[in-house]
Amino acid sequence: MKMIVAIIQPHRLDNVREALSDIGVAGLTVTEVKGYGRQKGHTEIYRGAEYQIQYIPKLKLEIATDDKTAEQAVVAIRAAAGQNKIGDGKIFVFNLEDAIRIRTGESGDEAL
Amino acid sequence: MKMIVAIIQPHRLDNVREALSDIGVAGLTVTEVKGYGRQKGHTEIYRGAEYQIQYIPKLKLEIATDDKTAEQAVVAIRAAAGQNKIGDGKIFVFNLEDAIRIRTGESGDEAL
Amino acid sequence: MKMIVAIIQPHRLDNVREALSDIGVAGLTVTEVKGYGRQKGHTEIYRGAEYQIQYIPKLKLEIATDDKTAEQAVVAIRAAAGQNKIGDGKIFVFNLEDAIRIRTGESGDEAL
Amino acid sequence: MNAADTGWILTATALVLLMTLPGLALFYAGLVQSKNILSVLMQCIAVACAASLIWFAVGYTLAFDEGNGWIGGTSKLFLAGIDRNSVSGTLPESLFAMFQMTFAIITPALMIGAFVERIKFGAVIMICSLWLVVVYAPVTHWVWGGGWLAERGIIDFAGGIVVHVTAGVSALVIAVMLGARKGFPEKITPPHAPWMVMVGASLLWVGWFGFNAGSAVAADQNAAMAMIATHLSAATASLVWLAIEKFRFGKPSLVGLVTGTIAGLATVTPASGTVGPLGGVLLGLAGGLVCYLAVEVIKMRMRIDDSLDVLAVHGVGGATGTLLLPFLATIGYGGTGLAEGVTIGNQFLTQLIGVAVVAFWSALATIIIVLVTKSMIGLRVTNDEEVEGLDFTYHGETGYRQ
Amino acid sequence: MNAADTGWILTATALVLLMTLPGLALFYAGLVQSKNILSVLMQCIAVACAASLIWFAVGYTLAFDEGNGWIGGTSKLFLAGIDRNSVSGTLPESLFAMFQMTFAIITPALMIGAFVERIKFGAVIMICSLWLVVVYAPVTHWVWGGGWLAERGIIDFAGGIVVHVTAGVSALVIAVMLGARKGFPEKITPPHAPWMVMVGASLLWVGWFGFNAGSAVAADQNAAMAMIATHLSAATASLVWLAIEKFRFGKPSLVGLVTGTIAGLATVTPASGTVGPLGGVLLGLAGGLVCYLAVEVIKMRMRIDDSLDVLAVHGVGGATGTLLLPFLATIGYGGTGLAEGVTIGNQFLTQLIGVAVVAFWSALATIIIVLVTKSMIGLRVTNDEEVEGLDFTYHGETGYRQ
Amino acid sequence: MNAADTGWILTATALVLLMTLPGLALFYAGLVQSKNILSVLMQCIAVACAASLIWFAVGYTLAFDEGNGWIGGTSKLFLAGIDRNSVSGTLPESLFAMFQMTFAIITPALMIGAFVERIKFGAVIMICSLWLVVVYAPVTHWVWGGGWLAERGIIDFAGGIVVHVTAGVSALVIAVMLGARKGFPEKITPPHAPWMVMVGASLLWVGWFGFNAGSAVAADQNAAMAMIATHLSAATASLVWLAIEKFRFGKPSLVGLVTGTIAGLATVTPASGTVGPLGGVLLGLAGGLVCYLAVEVIKMRMRIDDSLDVLAVHGVGGATGTLLLPFLATIGYGGTGLAEGVTIGNQFLTQLIGVAVVAFWSALATIIIVLVTKSMIGLRVTNDEEVEGLDFTYHGETGYRQ
Ligand SMILES: Nc1ncnc2c1ncn2[C@@H]1O[C@H](COP(=O)(O)OP(=O)(O)O)[C@@H](O)[C@H]1O
Ligand SMILES: Nc1ncnc2c1ncn2[C@@H]1O[C@H](COP(=O)(O)OP(=O)(O)O)[C@@H](O)[C@H]1O
Ligand SMILES: Nc1ncnc2c1ncn2[C@@H]1O[C@H](COP(=O)(O)OP(=O)(O)O)[C@@H](O)[C@H]1O
User: Fold this and answer.
1) Which positions in chain A touch B35 (Cβ < 8 Å)?
2) Which of B105, C70, D384, E203 is the most buried (most CB within 10 A)?
3) For residue B58, how far is its CA from the centre of ligand 2 (angstroms)?
4) How many CB atoms within 10 Å of residue A68?
């Protein structure tokens, strides 16, 4: 199994989620994060003073899938999250050794 | 070493933590996340209009353990977090290549 | 590639980020987390009653790097985050199978 | 000049300002998404400032200077001629102008609720400024400035027509011309801070004592009766809303209850000088029910994105009170009854004409104002700006940084 | 009728409403967990609305209509007979009834602090409604309505007995019968928003000027003296609390300081018409110390979950002021002294009887009210509801969505 | 004694307390980082309490008891001799002392803005307490207590010199002696809650009606004129700030607009008894511009960390109004003009002397106060404490726990 971690622009969340359900990915976990990268943060001005906001709000999605779905998922996320702007984000893929559904104790692919 | 990632219902946190210390797991990291899965989110009604809240507050626990403790930990978490309700959550197990305690520089199992 | 996950004291963030850019690590993702470990949480007193705050605010940094940079990064983080106090935090290293830059589709090291 | 009346109206003026700043601002800000909280607060306070200067420059004279039946004169432009000895009734005229200024502040600010989260900041200022001159000032003259409706004997003690019907109708027009928020109605997100909505509503409630009891422009039994009628209407309408939600959904909500509060306050406003305590309770009953239905009809049935229900709560409430007043003037104790020789029927007709003509004029003038604004600076923010939120895109700020 | 007095009491009425909405509501809401913030705000405003209608229907007449020593008459049910010419002292009677209504609003609302985070919403409304009729109205009659305690010459200027002792004692009774919050005392979580507690306390402080100085029912030197005594007591008690925390824990807390503020305000309330500035300071000293100890005793020693310390701060404070008043009436300048021929001893005895009998009656009646409520709709939410939080389980809303 | 005046000043007193609690406290708290919100609220309310007791003990007598040209007498220590019959003008003296107490509360509290986020709590209390006795009380005597500046015919209706120049100048001195916040200016973090800043500013605006119109110590045309001039100045300065930001940065900010509001209010304060509506507008224009520039100069050019711009907004605003007043006394309608036979030149000179001498004395005395405090308890928190935040390190609390 794989764990796909995607850092995306907050307002692309619904797009991505729909794209994922289209390929049959039912669940995911979302975390509010702040990102630092190529994209320059914006500046805010208070009483004439400039403040550089370097950390940009992003959403981190964690999606556990079986091996074959993983690739589709990556493609789907890219398509749904991409606006071809700096700051669109990144996708990271990890090997997931095991998954257990707490309620039933099912493990492996059935747990997803 | 393993990194165990558990998505649980927020109010089960204390149960789980106690269950873990019983098996000698001292540390963990908690993140507030929002989950999307089988469990249908609730609806809220404002001025007669229904709002579907699809993302449900969950807690994500990250627990680094040595290989042998890992299995007990998974069992312990299941027992402590499970209420046999949809939405109880999931446990994910990753391989952890290395761990370092910043303060001392110890690495590997001693770092946990 | 490696994914380095560091749990640090919130006020060390800028130090760490500078240390990382010095070794050419451009991007990272920050998450506000709460930690439980050796460090005892503080107590707060309201109207004479003591409240034990067990979960301590920490920051979790996720940094994807290529294999060779990874080691320097760990060293840099330790140096920048360490105050040799309990609670300084921990660094976890994972194997990262793949990384994709959403905007361009580049993958592997170029995506970082 | 009467010092006791002066003291009370100085106080009432502070209370009515409190209604807008921060009362109404918080009431509205809590109902939007967190990414737009500052834009709503900004719109409220900027409109308040602009309205103050416009009232000083032209509003007061157009509304209260002697003129013809349709519009006041211009002898008091920039409050010309008002010195320390000028009086209006038992008050220094400077105080009367100031008290009325706080009404001229809150009325356009009320409209903001209809177009939040998607309108250009500049458009808000331009629309509200023009509106104050073209709609509010003349209508105030008609009803309170000795104009044709005053002549006809219309009763609008504290502004059911002048404030709530004008703002409510115009708000709806603007909402329609501007278009709904992205994703309306399915994908709208719920109020980001119900607690803030309640705080705003509470301050509106307290401030409304200055609004209604202050409209007696004296510290007397009429002010006292207005206060108790106002309070009982607010309490009743709140409980009506609570009961409806309890029976329909099982869970009475805080946002629902305080929406009822505002409905009750808007409904009693025109009648608060005419009815007694029992009349206040009955108005609260009526206002709570009618406004609840109005929200249903406008948002659910007609699917118009009058985002924070300005017409449904304020406009409909104000109209309801205005039209019911003839029937309640003699109910229970403490009412004033109607003027010598005026039948309930006559009075009702007058009230009806007032509501209808004012609603018509508000709608017509607002259409023109919006068209002009649109052609000059445009109305709506871009899709990206709406998605990112107006706080940063229009004001360069972040609402919460904890 | 006196216009100046009328103007001041119109103002005072607005200030006392501000104490509850949003003052007390915020003070309490900031002290609970974030998952219960809306439920507390909802309980405060819903009780305020219900109390208003009950006061209109039966409360006022039972408290202030002529009756016997124990209860008022019924000739003013639904404020019957109160028209625009009715006066009460130098005020329009409608205003007196309205001013008193704001007291009838805050008193039951004070009790909410004792049973937050675990009580059914319906039970709050039912208990507070019955309580207003069975406890508050009669006691008000005894003390302010010409009842037996008034006959006996008791002194309770603004409600140390009528408001604080009744609410404090009854609150404790309810807390005991309801049971403690899950995990009390070890696992209770700290206040979720100390800043909100401070804002609520500040508004209570400002509003208390209307409460105490308004109780002079005139714009005169007694109102003025009441205001300064009230203010100095609040300031002193705040610093007492600060000092205690500084010496005991090293860190003076904001929640602690403002708790002292409320203790000082509750303590001076009954005496604010009798003492001068120095008396106010001394009452603040006493109130700060005694209430601090009371919190210790009730929460730590007796382990009773009077969650937000209603008895310890309000009840004990009000009683302390009531009992100290005879001794402070002539201290320093500005005090009124005691009535012709009344010794400190006599007065103290009267005060003591008042506190004791009222406390007894409040406890007894509340026990019955709670038993009735329990049998009819139950008191306590389920364990799961308590864990999930009342905001969503009872009101279907979320407090913060940022 | 005049009941109408008494009623209005009772109200005005409540309004001025509202300015500090919670107005100013929220205004400042929203501007700091979230880890310091409670420390700012705590400093404001603790200073308010301490100032109240000091005013009661020594402040009032030193300021208003008959004395020489430089300082008042001591016959009214602890308000000795003030009983229920004492009057001051048309007010009970107890009320006058109480009204003035609220000024003695807000003035030192204003200074807090200059040294937030890095000063020891004890130092705040000590500095503000000494300052009240050494700077505020004497200067009040000079200007309002019949002292040498009063003799010279200085005009400072509501405290441009007494309140704003003293607080502004002293605040800067303290900021300089304390040193800048860690990372100033590059790495300072932006206001954590602009919405809270706006709420605070709104309450300051409303309360300022009590501050300026209350300074007429009567419910008359002068109070009325002061209120409208005050309001128009606030509205104008707000729009000036909005316009500047719009043209300079493209995005007008909420924090900017409300900073303009406060600048306008501070500027009109000394002149609010002298000018008419037009004068208010002109003062708002001047105040908005001058204060905006002052922020630039002090923060950007001089790089002094007067953190929340106390001197730039309050001190400079108050001085501007004080110096412009002679020129505006006869502009438009409603002004009082200058005293018989006083030329604009003379008056300006008097005003200038007042500002200069008071600024000098404030600076000098503050330097000594700060040195004393530093030697006794130290000024600045440790680096670690500053990094962790004062809420927990000094008060053991957490501001937000959602
Ligand atoms: N090396 C990295 N490790 C972890 N997260 C990263 C890394 N680089 C970028 N990110 C995350 O991806 C987000 C987008 O990256 P950025 O460089 O800004 O844009 P892009 O990837 O489109 O060039 C960043 O805000 C950050 O959260
Ligand atoms: N495929 C997945 N990848 C990542 N997280 C998931 C996935 N499926 C479920 N989750 C997380 O687990 C939580 C519980 O899953 P859910 O399907 O709701 O209940 P259950 O697992 O008991 O059937 C979800 O809220 C989500 O946070
Ligand atoms: N076994 C673990 N798994 C996951 N996170 C941990 C673990 N142990 C510690 N942590 C995280 O590291 C932080 C610091 O660890 P702690 O034991 O407090 O200090 P130190 O590592 O310096 O001894 C903790 O707050 C927690 O967030």
Assistant:
1) 27-30
2) E203
3) 10
4) 10
Residue identified by tokens 């039970």 is E123
User: Which ligand 2 atom is the nearest neighbour of the CA of B38?
Assistant: 17
How many Å separate Cα E368 from the centre of its chain? Answer: 21
Distance in angstroms (rounded) separating the CA atoms of residues E266 and E315: 8
Among the ranges given (D270-274, E179-183, F184-188), the one the predictor scored with the smallest mean pLDDT: F184-188
- CB atoms inside a 10 Å sphere around CB E56: 26
pLDDT at C89: 95
CB contact under 8 A, D333 and E79: yes
Q: In chain E, which residues have their Cβ closer than 8 Å to the Cβ of C51? A: 188-190
Angle subtended at Cα C36 by Cα C33 and Cα C39, rounded to the nearest 5 degrees: 115
pLDDT, tens digit, 9 for 90 and up, residues E169-178: 999 999 999 9
CA of C36 to the centre of ligand 3 (A): 6
Query: What is the per-residue DSSP string for E16-39?
Result: HHHIIIIIIHHHHHTTS-GGGHHH
Looking at residue D236, what is its pLDDT? 98
Q: Which of D95, D394, D402 sits opposite F224 (nearest CB)?
A: D95
In short, whether B7's Cβ falls inside 6 Å of ligand 2 is yes
Report phi then psi at D66, rounded to 5: -60, 135
Q: Which residues pair with C43 in a beta bridge?
A: C52
pTM, whole model, 2 decimals?
A: 0.98
Question: E193-226, pLDDT tens digit by residue?
Answer: 999 999 999 999 999 999 999 999 999 999 999 9
Q: What is the pLDDT of residue A112?
A: 87
Give the ligand at the shortest distance from the Cα of B83: 2
Tokens of E285: 């000293």
Q: Write b or e for each residue in F103-129: b if 16 or more Cβ atoms lie within 10 A of its Cβ, otherwise e.
A: bbbbbbbbbbbbbbbbbbbbbbbbbbb
Does residue A58 line the site of ligand 1, with CB under 6 A? yes
User: Does any ligand 2 atom lie closer than 6 A to the CB of residue A13?
Assistant: no
For chain D, the first-to-last Cα distance in angstroms comes to 52
Average of per-residue pLDDT values in chain E: 97
pLDDT at A39 > cutoff 90: no
Q: Which chains touch B (3 or more CB pairs under 8 A)?
A: A, C, D, E
> Which residue CA neighbors atom 9 of ligand 1 most closely?
C27
Q: Give which of C96, C78, C101 is closest to C88, Cα–Cα.
A: C78
| Through-space distance between the first and last CA atoms of chain C, rounded to whole angstroms | 10
Task: Please name the residue that has the structure tokens 């700012």.
Answer: F40
3-state helix, strand, coil in chain D (%, to 5): 70, 0, 25
**ipTM higher than the 0.85 cut:** yes
For chain C, say whether E254 makes contact (Cβ under 8 Å).
no
Q: E strands along E41-164, which residues?
A: 87-88, 91-92
Mean pLDDT along residues E263-283: 98
Contacts of A103 in chain B (CB under 8 A): 82, 84-89
As a whole number of angstroms, the distance between CA F29 and CA F47 comes to 15
What is the model's pLDDT at position B39? 85
CA dist., res. F68 & res. D391, Å (int): 56
Return the H-helix or E-strand segment holding A6: strand A2-8
Find chain A residues with C-beta within 8 A of C20's C-beta: none
Q: Among the listed ranges A47-51, B101-105, D54-58, D248-252, which one has the minimum average pLDDT value?
A: A47-51
Q: Which is more confidently placed, F144 or B55?
A: F144
Task: Say yes or no: CB of residue C39 within 6 Å of ligand 3.
Answer: yes
pLDDT at F173 exceeding the cut of 90: yes
- Amino acid (1-letter code) at residue F61: T
CB-nearest to F252 from D10, D13, D395 is D395
How far apart are the C-alpha atoms of D38 and D29, rounded to whole Å?
Answer: 7
Cα of E105 from ligand 2 centre, angstroms: 47
Q: Which of B12-16, B73-77, D393-397, F33-37 has the lowest mean pLDDT?
A: B12-16
Average pLDDT over all residues of chain F: 97
Q: What is the dihedral of CA B76, B81, B86, B92, to 10 degrees?
A: -50
